[in-house]
């Protein structure tokens, strides 16, 4: 995806260290979130159901975030949700680390002001919850 982005004009502007930090934070969050999807995949009855089940989780998290619009353009209830949404923190952290914040103001909420810390803490929390649940559920399923 980054090669595609480079082909259409995306650039990182804060140097290689920040670029690598951005890549690492995206990978770390993806790994942590994959454990949520792992548990979901173990719970659902058929592989086909995982597509619909994952869509029900990913759709609201992605579209009610700052990924596509500034949160201050959203209705108040959605703005509050978007500013505390983990995907918004991930998007903000990636923008900051890649040096692509643009002229949009950073919302005045703790997760947006401390996006890197929010993503790291949230990822660790996701893994602390969903790795044991996934492993336990897998053991139960495989012992049948």
Structure, briefly:
By secondary structure, this protein is mostly helical. It has helices at 2-7, 15-43, 47-63, 76-83, 86-98, 110-113, 115-142.
What does this structure look like?
The protein contains seven helices and no strands. It is mainly α. Helix 2 (15-43) packs antiparallel against helix 5 (86-98), helix 2 runs parallel beside helix 7 and helix 5 crosses helix 7 (115-142). The longest helix is centred in the first third of the chain and has 29 residues, at 15-43. The chain is globular, with a radius of gyration of 17 Å. The model has no long low-confidence stretch (mean pLDDT 92).
Give the topology, please.
Blueprint lengths: L1 H6 L7 H29 L3 H17 L12 H8 L2 H13 L11 H4 L1 H28 L2
Specify the number of helices: 7
pLDDT averaged over residues: 92
List low-confidence stretches: none
| SSE order, one letter for each helix or strand | HHHHHHH
Ends: how far apart?
41 Å
Described by the principal axes of the CA atoms, the overall outline is globular
Determine the strand fraction and express it as a percent band.
under 5%
Tell me the number of strands: 0
Proportion in helices? over 70%
Largest sheet: none
Radius of gyration: 17 Å
Structural classification: mainly alpha
């Amino acid at each position: 995806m980054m090669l595609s982005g480079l082909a259409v004009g995306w650039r990182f502007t804060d140097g290689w260290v920040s670029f690598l930090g951005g890549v690492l934070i995206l990978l770390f969050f993806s790994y942590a979130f994959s454990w949520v999807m792992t548990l979901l995949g173990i719970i659902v009855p058929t592989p086909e159901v995982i597509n619909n089940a994952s869509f029900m989780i990913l759709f609201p998290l992605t579209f009610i975030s700052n990924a596509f619009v500034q949160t201050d353009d959203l209705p108040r209830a959605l703005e509050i949700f978007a500013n505390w949404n983990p995907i918004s923190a991930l998007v903000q952290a990636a923008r900051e680390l890649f040096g692509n914040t643009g002229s949009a103001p950073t919302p005045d909420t703790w997760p947006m002001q401390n996006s890197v810390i929010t993503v790291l803490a949230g990822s660790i929390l996701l893994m602390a919850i969903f790795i044991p649940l996934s492993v336990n559920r897998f053991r139960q399923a495989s012992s049948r």
